Amino acid sequence: MKSDTLVIAGGGPAGLTAAIYACRARISTVLIEKVSPGGQVLITDRVDNYPGFPEGIAGYELVDRMLAQAKRFGLEQRNGEIISVQPPARSGEPVKISLADGETIEAGGLIIATGASHNHLGVPGETELTGRGVSYCATCDGPFFNDAHVAVVGGGDTAVQEAIFLTKFAKKVTLIHRRDQLRAIKLLQEEAFANPKIEFVWDTVVESINGTDKVESLSLLNKKTGEKSTISVDGVFIFVGIHPNTHFLKGTVEMNQWGFIKTDEEMRTSAPSIWAAGDCREKPLLQIVTAVADGAVAAHSAELSMGHG
Fold this sequence. Notes:
Blueprint: E1 6-9, H1 13-24, E2 29-33, H2 59-72, E3 76-79, E4 82-86, E5 95-99, E6 104-107, E7 109-112, E8 116-118, E9 134-135, H3 138-141, E10 149-153, H4 157-166, E11 172-176, H5 186-193, E12 198-201, E13 204-210, E14 217-222, E15 228-232, E16 235-238, E17 242-244, E18 274-276, H6 288-305
Parallel strand pairs: 1-2, 1-7, 2-3, 7-18, 9-16, 10-11, 10-16, 11-12
Antiparallel strand pairs: 4-5, 5-6, 8-17, 13-14, 14-15
């Protein structure tokens, strides 16, 4: 790979937008994605807050359009897992990117757009029953719970939106939240409260997920009263925040205490020739629209730095 090539790590909205801008600037651009482009958007049933789609758009469709647009301008896409990055020691030297298969890539610049992943509860039964009733993706697994009783754990936008989505299949959705009110935006709250299939359990945490071959019940603890209880469910969907996919960058770029990458307004990290964009970056709002903006700025910054501006 040529040293004037720009590598983009991650194929979510931030990475795909960076690819569109970089390719249009006639920079040789390679996007490396561990699985398939899309990130968290790929498993989102409906995107209602991205401008330009008054009726909303399915997450996979939005990603498909972005990818097709990037490829139209010449993007090279490949699969691979980045395990470490070595910034240039001095000006003019390449960024060295090591892949899990043993290959080392040298590039003129690197945009980190690896996004974030769902947090786990860390309770007994969660790992053992993942894929057997424990899920982190309602879009993926919701159809398997037709006419069933499922639980959703969380109180933010994602948890509430996915609880609403699950009512398309489940006969009952119990939303369990550790606080006494939701954190989701008011529009989603109103929709959830108006849905007769959704019931709410407040001030409560899950202590264990129970079952032998599949999820059968949840052991709960009310944090205010100390009361313990058990509810029978056929599945549980967990949406309790995210963590950035930046483990491979430890010691490479400056990050905050949670592992989100620190950047300036031009998306530059603390390491030369490395930029960051999207949900892996430290910022106040993690949304598709901000990820797209980050990707555009990162590509423009890389363009100027690599001598294409």
